[in-house]
């Protein structure tokens, strides 16, 4: 936002008192016409040339800087907020990733568990109690094409079904299941099941027998 000095405001009001219109004052190029009208209106309402203090926190970026950010966003829709902030800073704008997320763009509300702090505390107590005595194991599926979750893209409102904004999908993507284990002493064995093979009872028993049990002495 452009700041008009007190001296310039005084000149504008003096010219206004002499009968000049806002358009005539703007022709002298001492300030933008929109600002001149605001200064005159403020003087008529408050009888002062001092600018009215804006409520709330001052905006960190100007409209021009916001337009620059939009150019960065449209250049690569998959760019993260941190990367956009870094690119913005290189252009001379002092802003963080949080400021980027506050500007117009596609974003999804975050979800937070109400018992998050309690879960963290309880898990920490559990880990300290059984540290060095427990082997943790788990298995997880991985799609070989696409993603199983949501993928965000930066786009305009009218570009919802634009070809370059759509995420490619397949009806039955190939999936692999991976099993692994670890303890306080380090990681254990890693097992990759054949493609499109689910971790059923038979496979799980085989993994425990062939992979987990030989790992126990090492842990």
From TrEMBL:
It comes from the Eukaryota. GO terms for molecular function: nucleic acid binding. This is Transposase Tc1-like domain-containing protein.
